[in-house]
Amino acid sequence: MPISRLLYTSRSCLVPAELTVEQQASNIAARAAIRNKEVGITGVLVFVEDHFIQLIEGEGPVVEDVFERICCDFDHAQVRLVDLVGVKDRMFDRWHMAELSGSENAGSPLDEELQHIRFLMGVNARVAVEKMHECLLECEANGLLSPA
Ligand SMILES: Cc1cc2nc3c(=O)[nH]c(=O)nc-3n(C[C@H](O)[C@H](O)[C@H](O)COP(=O)(O)O)c2cc1C
């Protein structure tokens, strides 16, 4: 079955509590990874400047089903579908939902990369996806990726 790749952005509604918003975003990705594994979804969740950028890929009907659920989630708002394409191969096949999040203290090299990705989303989403993939591989090589 062909693979669908869906890309969207949203504004986070997370508020700091016992957990920072970054920790809450990590938990969302970790829980998502467990569910996604069961239904064959792969992808990445970026959390930057109180916004989410998420890419999900999998069988078309499954992607649609997961996205419908995500859209109804009150942890974010202003969900904006950026791209939905059919692809031959998965690009994020190693991750059921990897997470890329800036540090709580802004200004790290990763923060800058994520801000650049956010900027690219408004200019050329396909290039932004390439950058997300590069950034994941870099983080993985540097041991900066959580196990999601
Ligand atoms: C930014 C964001 C990304 C999410 N990504 C996923 C995901 O990839 N897969 C998933 O199953 N749920 C994801 N969720 C959680 C779903 O929105 C939903 O809360 C969860 O699937 C439980 O749905 P249910 O209460 O209808 O069972 C995400 C939530 C947010 C806020």
Looking at this protein, list some descriptive labels.
148 residues; alpha+beta; Alpha-Beta Plaits; five-stranded mixed beta sheet; 4 helices; globular
Strand order of the largest sheet: 4-1-3-2-5
* CATH-derived topology: Alpha-Beta Plaits
The fraction of residues assigned to DSSP E strands is 25-35%
CATH class: Alpha Beta
Tell me the CATH architecture.
Answer: 2-Layer Sandwich
How many discrete structural domains?
1
Number of E strands: 5
* Overall body shape: globular
Mean pLDDT level: 94
Biggest sheet, open or closed, and with what strands and sense? 5 strands, mixed
Class computed from helices, strands and strand pairing: alpha+beta
The unique ligands bound to this protein are: flavin mononucleotide
Radius of gyration: 14 Å
Roughly what percent helix? 40-55%
Number of alpha- plus pi-helical segments: 4
What string gives the helices and strands in order? EHEEHEEHH
